[in-house]
């Protein structure tokens, strides 16, 4: 299930500080995966991972979750992933669920049947985001250039898959706003909003752009600004929960949400707190809908 060096390099079609910043993120995730492969107890694994610089540590935890999920699927015994999510992975719970989805894609397992194994009824849908990211990142010709989508996913699963694909475009396009916009424009219009959510998540979580580029993103997304803002705020909540907020998150929230990252994080957490315990619709769907409605009212996008 390993990630060969050629696959890490395959996404990198340019040079300069943006590509270097993205490559650091990718290598941190791969490093977390290899911390699991190197063996030992969960404590041993975390010792290796916690030397990763704090701004990149969430990616390393993503890689750990990917590795532990793979181990759980191919070897018997108590769930290593469950122990990780309940323990050291809990602060980075957003990125950890994404890593689960990447492992399932890597092993060619369908992701939605796996959701029942995960305790958080809302965040477990991030597995589909990780699944979509993996497919968009490692199989871009199929899932970005030719806009394919797995037919076995549920209607809502396809939407979260698209968020992961949108996040992958941020990486494979080198965070170039013009390329990102062109890539998304090639998809069917019904998919645009969710792809832009993924772009917002990447912009906020990854960082690395100057204000001028983020203003360009605000202009490029047009009427999908509330979707971008939803992704930005969601990533801000992930960073705040992990206590590793970066300046790029603050900047993205300021330009794209009209609030600071602490306010954006609080908005997301308050929305979590009002989700119904039981609903015929997935809690994550309700969360996204509420955030989009909120941002549509507070930062109406151009037509």
Write up this protein:
By secondary structure, this protein is mainly α. The chain has one domain (5-297). It is built from 16 helices and no strands. The chain has helices at residues 5-10, 17-37, 42-49, 54-74, 80-86, 93-106, 126-138, 140-145, 155-172, 177-185, 189-206, 211-221, 225-241, 247-256, 261-274, 283-298. Helix 2 (17-37) packs antiparallel against helix 3, helix 9 crosses helix 11 and helix 13 crosses helix 15 (261-274). It is globular. The protein starts with a helix and ends in a 5-residue tail after the last helix. 48% of the residues are buried.
Quick recap:
The chain has 16 helices and no strands. The chain has 303 residues and is mainly α. The protein has one domain (5-297).
Enumerate how many helices there are, as a single number: 16
Order of helices and strands: HHHHHHHHHHHHHHHH
Number of strands: 0
Integer-rounded radius of gyration = 18 Å
Q: Measure the end-to-end span.
A: 45 Å
Report strand %.
Answer: under 5%
Instruction: Specify the structural class.
Output: mainly alpha
Shape: globular
Sheet having the most strands: none
| Unreliable residue runs | none
Residues in helix, %: 55-70%
Q: Name the average pLDDT.
A: 94
- As for the number of domains, it is 1
